[in-house]
Fold these 2 entries.
Entry 1:
Amino acid sequence: MANQALEFFQANIGQTFAQSPSPLSRWLGGTLLQAEEGMLEASFVVREEMTNPMGTLHGGTISAICDDLIGATTFTLGREYFYTSINLNVDFLASARLGETVIAKATLVRAGQTIIHADCTLRDAEGKLLAKAASNLMRVNVPIKKAD
């Protein structure tokens, strides 16, 4: 059986999330770099509205990038139901400035039927680790509508 969601992500490598059903994904404005079952990687350019008063990427924006990309990664499994975050732990390790590009990589560590555990890293363009996140997601009884 074909995994339509994974095929969709793979067909959109190099594209922005402008057509995402998630308003947050559209606002974050990432570009998909890689897509595999259980893994997505995307780049984001730090815009002014994503920064704090020091001109660095806001911790809330970092958290949003990680949470949103982890959530999108659950779709690569081709499952029937949505998963929602039940926690998100983020360690902020270094900063990124206005105009810089950051790379987020979300990986599903354990994908049970009810609970999924995932990690996400955020790095600068040179590979320096800026933040790392861990999250658990729980299956909810809301079915994902499949494309015909």
Entry 2:
Amino acid sequence: MMRLAGYTLLLTAALASAQSKQPKTSAQNLSAVFHATNAQILEMAKDFPEDKYGFRLKPEMRSFGDVLVHVASGNVFASKAGRGEKVKWDELDSKNYHGKAEVVALLEKSIAGANAALDANPTGPTKDLEPFLSVMEHSAEHYGLLVAYYRANGLVPPASRPKSK
């Protein structure tokens, strides 16, 4: 009887372990990357020197701070569309956000809204992972641009820094 109980316990543990290792769904993978991309951009927003928020790679390009406001615009779009609202891309005006603290606060708020919409409806309102997929791709492109702003200023982006052990 004791042996049967032992086998039952082992079988239960094996089944529980197998269940926990099931592959993630597309929505779960998208959610993980969406959250990670926004977290990296927010880390950059907090890390980049305030006196360089107005830096532009070229005069006709957005400044570092402007790019962050633009990314926030995408998150606002994702949160509204993710809740099923009829929405079009409404670009937030970077002139309304003065200084690093206001831009970081805007970005944090937009990320929280987008994350809440994604967590509540991970496959999107039409069950095709939109709008989160488009906004995630958009944000990832701008992450790369922000890396260029770091490098042009002789700075190392947070994700490229050596990790302490």
